Amino acid sequence: MKEFDFRELQRCSTRAPHCKAIIRQSPADFRVAEILPFEPEGTGGHHWLFIEKTDTNTDWLANALARFAGVPQVAVGYAGLKDRHAITRQWFSVNLEGQEVPDWSAFDSDQYRIIDMQRHNKKLKRGALQGNHFDITLRELSGDKDSWLEGLMHIKQHGFPNYFAEQRFGHQSGNLFRADQWFKTGRAPSRRNQRSIILSAGRSWLFNLVLSERIKFGSWNQALQGDVIQLAGSRSFFHVADVDEIIEQRLAQMDIHPTGPLWGRGRLPNSALSQQLEETVLLDWQPWKQALEKAGLSQERRALRVFPQQMNWQFVDNQCLKLSVQLPAGSYLTALLRELGQINDASMAINTGDDSFEGAE
């Protein structure tokens, strides 16, 4: 049986080991606002609701909307899961075509409230997200202020490794143990949603292994010969046979990012040193690679680094730091925080395995 120690294996690009803090001592210490890539059209049978919720599970709230509107659960859509132990703002859509429109003002409660309503002609689908804006409070800081400032400035200027965070892998890495059992025995879970979660965890783990190795050799934010490069802010990629000054300049300007593999069917699109590194890192993971291919997943790429937007901070006092930052969809705030130091999540003591995904997907 493989061991999956996320904290030990996933290297940081830079971190002051004596810097420590606590997040989420209360929901108000962790605020997330969803950013859509487009505006609702203003007409149509789908009612889009921008809802602020406190200490509330995303899926539970979607079901509550369905019950209130008298529609099946499938009629309600949302772009992604958001933290329960937080104050979050996210969009939900409710298909009311042919249905009577309810009095939405009666839906509000002490834990959630509708703050905006729009109409659109389509359902809000999973993944239809540009990013998330975070306003968080770190408390009980230890370590000197200069070390905190150095870490914050480094991330603002150079970005941070685009790890899939621990919550991707389930409580105590349970999804990875399930993946290992499935991939070795061939016995897949019976439920489709469980299979999807486990497959995502498996390919995410392989990506993290490659990213960790590139951090080890200092190439997580640089291009290797044969790399596949992603254009910042897009899903466009191109192959780099040789790294020249233009590529290095564009990397420094955060215009492009090196990528790593999301494993699946098909040949690796990279070559030379880049491909050699990935094949070497994943040499002992053949059963996993074969199982992901057999499951029908295709080879994809993911940026190795994240460049944060609108990143600002304020030291309230020597024990408290307020951080504001906007991250693109698919990235994790915890991946940023672990670059600063040892950040302990106070909500984990009461976490029941719900949707603590930080609006990452």
Give the topology, please.
Blueprint (H helix, E strand, L loop, with lengths): L5 H4 L10 E4 L6 E6 L10 E9 L3 H12 L6 E3 L8 E9 L16 E9 L10 E12 L2 H14 L1 E2 L12 H12 L6 H25 L11 E4 L5 E3 L5 H8 L3 E7 L9 H10 L4 H9 L5 E4 L1 E2 L2 E9 L2 E9 L4 H8 L1 E4 L16
Parallel strand pairs: 1-16, 2-5
Antiparallel strand pairs: 1-7, 2-7, 3-5, 3-6, 4-5, 7-15, 8-13, 9-10, 9-11, 11-12, 14-15
Gist?
With 361 residues, this protein is α+β, with helices and mostly antiparallel strands.
Key phrases:
single chain; 361 residues; 10-stranded mixed sheet; alpha+beta; 4-stranded antiparallel sheet; 2 domains; Pseudouridine synthase; globular; disordered C terminus; 28% helix
Structure, explained:
This protein has two domains: 15-158 and 308-361, Pseudouridine synthase, CATH 3.30.2350; 160-306, Pseudouridine synthase, CATH 3.30.2340.10. α4 packs across α5 (192-216) and α4 packs across α8 (286-294). By secondary structure, it is α+β, with helices and mostly antiparallel strands. Strands 1, 2, 3, 4, 5, 6, 7, 14, 15 and 16 form a ten-stranded mixed β-sheet that branches. The longest helix is centred in the middle third of the chain and has 25 residues, at 192-216. Helices cover 28% and strands 27% of the residues. The chain has helices at 6-9, 58-69, 145-158, 174-185, 192-216, 245-252, 272-281, 286-294, 333-340, and strands at 20-23, 30-35, 46-54, 76-78, 87-95, 112-120, 131-142, 160-161, 228-231, 237-239, 256-262, 300-303, 305-306, 309-317, 320-328, 342-345. β4 and β5 form a beta hairpin.
